[in-house]
Amino acid sequence: MESEQEQEAGALGMASGSVLRGLPTGADGTSIEALGLNAYYGQKQVLREVSMKIRGGCVTAVIGPSGCGKSTFIRCLNRMHELGAGARVTGRVALDGQDIYAPTVDPALLRRRVGMVFQEPNPFPTMNIRDNVLSGLAMTGRLAAGQADEIVERSLRAAALWEEVRDKLKEPGLGLSGGQQQRLCIARALAVEPDVLLMDEPCSALDPIATARIEELIHTLAGKFTIVIVTHNMQQAARVSHDTAFFLGGALVELAPTNRLFTSPRDSRTEDYITGKFG
Amino acid sequence: MIAMRRRSVPVGEIVFRALCLGAVVVPLVALVALLVAVIAEGVGRLDADFVMRFPSRIASAAGILPALAGSIALVLLTMLIAVPVAVGSALYLEEYGNRGRFAGVIEVNITNLAGVPSVIYGLLGLEIFVRFLALRQSLIAGALTLSLLVMPVIITASRESIRTVPNALREAALGMGATRWSMVRGVVLPMAAPGMITGSILALSRAFGESAPLIIVGAATFITFLPNGVMSSYSTLPIQIFNWVSRPHEAFQTNAAAGIVVLLAAVLCLNAVAVLVRHRLQRRRN
Ligand SMILES: Nc1ncnc2c1ncn2[C@@H]1O[C@H](COP(=O)(O)OP(=O)(O)OP(=O)(O)O)[C@@H](O)[C@H]1O
Ligand SMILES: [Mg+2]
C-alpha cells in the first residue's frame, strides 16, 4: 500500500500542491512511518497493525468515524498514548528513519520535535498570553533571557494572532475568544520549534469563521512543518491536506493523495464513508 | 387555573423545615452564648500586661506570653515540617503514583488517619520522638507530633486541589516536551496552590488549638522563659488555659477566660489569612 501511495505521490509530484489551490509542500520535512503499530487500553486493542507513511513537509489528514482510533493514532506519534493508565503500544514508528519507541529515546525530547494541538483550546489559566507562548521553552529550561520578546512575536505571527493580541500580551490567555485561544495554543506549540505538528480536531470546538482562520493558518504552515490533522469534516480534509488516511475500527483502510481518495477511492468502505453511507 | 393555585404546604415539609432550622439555630445559640460568657468574663482581665507577662503563682500578676510564643513557634515549626512533606506526598500520589492496588491501600490509610483521635498521635509521638529519638519534651518533638496529626488533612486537601487541574493542561505541557516535574511545577502547582494553602492553614489552625497530644509529649504548664531553639521546653495557649482552669482559685478562672479570648483571636487571625490568601490567588488567576 505504501508503494502505491508513493507512486501516486510521485506521479503528482510537487504538483499536488498546485492541484490543492496552492497548498505548499516542503520537500525536506520530517517524514513519519508507522510499521505494524498496535495500541491498547488495558486489554482492549484500539489500533491494529497500522502501517503508513506520512510524507515530510506535507499535511496528512486522518478521517474516520468516531471511535475508530484517529486520536489514538496521532497520540502514538509523539508517545502521548502511553501516558494513560494501562495504555500500551507495540510496533514501530520512525521519525526520519529513527524509531521513536527505541529504549534510548527520551519521550520528553521527542515531544519537543513533535508538537500537539488539542481539540479543546487549552491555554494555561494561570498564565498571561505572553507566558503561554513561552511556557514550552520555560518548562524545558530553554528560555534565554533577551530572546523572549522576539520568540513571542515570531510565534504569534506564525500563528496569525500577533495583530490581535500585540497590545494585550499581559492579559490572561483565557480572556481570548475560542478561535484566538486555539491559535494561541498553536503559537505555544510553534514556540518550541517542532518539526512535526499533530492536530487533533483543532476546529471542532470553533465556529465557522474561526475554523476558516485556522485552515488558512494550516495553509501557511504547510511546507514548513509536517502536519498530521485529525478531522471529522471531510471538506476540511479536502481543503487542507495533501494526503488523507481513512481509518475504520482501529485499522488503516486507505491512504492516498487527498483528491484521489475523495474522487476515486479504491476501497468500497472508503467510498461508503465519504459518500455518507455510514459514520 | 387550578394548577396555578398555590397548594397548602404539607405537614411533613413544615416539620422538616423546622428541624433544619433548629439544627442551625440551636448550636449557633449555644456557641454565641458560650462566646459571650467567656468574653464577658475574660475581657476585663485582658490587657497588654496580660499578653506580655510570664506565668505567676499570683493570678493577677500572671501573663500568657510564653504560652503565646510557644504556640506560635510550635505552629510555625509544624508548618515547616508538615506542609512540604504533605504537599510532596499529595503530588506523588496524584502525579506519579501508578493507580494500582498499592495506591488504593495508601488512599484508605490516609483517609482513616485523618479521623484518628489526636490522643493516639500523642502516644505515637511519645514513643517515637520523645523516647526513641530521645528528643525529650522539646519544641521539635511537639512539632513532629502535631505534624503527624495535620499531615493527613493537608494531604487530602492538596490531593483534592490537584485533582481539579484538568488533564488537558498536563497533556499540553507534556506535549511540548516538559518533563513530569517541570509540568507539575509550571502547571499543576500554580493552579493547585490556593487549595493547598487554605487546606494547610485550616489544618494548622486546628493544631494551634490542640492540647491532648501535647500533654502527652510533655508540653510544660509552667514556663518562665521564651522558646530559644528547637530543643527548648515550651508551653502553649491551650495547655496554659487548661492549667488555669484546673486551679481552684477564682482569679485563675478569669485568667483562663482571658486566655481563651487570646486563643480564639489567634485562630480567627489564621483563618482570616487563609481566606485572604485564597482570594488573592484566585483574583490573580482571573
Ligand atoms: N482512556 C481510554 N480508555 C479506554 N478506552 C479508550 C480510552 N480512550 C479511548 N478509548 C477507546 O479507544 C477507541 C479509539 O478511541 P479514539 O479516541 O482514538 O477514537 P477517535 O477516532 O479519535 O474518535 P473521535 O472521533 O470520537 O475523537 C474507542 O473505541 C474508545 O472507546
Ligand atoms: Mg478523537
| Class from secondary-structure proportions of chain A | alpha/beta
Rg of chain A, alpha carbons: 18 Å
Instruction: List low-confidence stretches of chain A.
Output: 1-20
Describe the sheet with the most strands of chain A: 6 strands, mixed
The DSSP helix count of chain B reads 11
**What is the CA–CA distance across the termini of chain B?**
48 Å
Helix share, percent of chain A: 25-40%
Shape of chain A: globular
Question: What ligands are attached or bound here?
Answer: adenosine-5'-triphosphate, magnesium ion
Main sheet: strands, sense, barrel of chain B: none
Whole-number count of domains of chain B? 2
CATH architectural designation of the largest domain in chain B: Orthogonal Bundle
Output the structural class of chain B.
Answer: mainly alpha
Helix content bin of chain B: over 70%
Number of strands of chain A: 10
Q: State the name of the first-level CATH class of the largest domain in chain B.
A: Mainly Alpha
Average pLDDT reading of chain A:
89
Strand order, sheet with most strands of chain A: 6-7-8-3-9-10
Number of strands of chain B: 0
The greatest interface here is: A-B, 28 and 24 residues
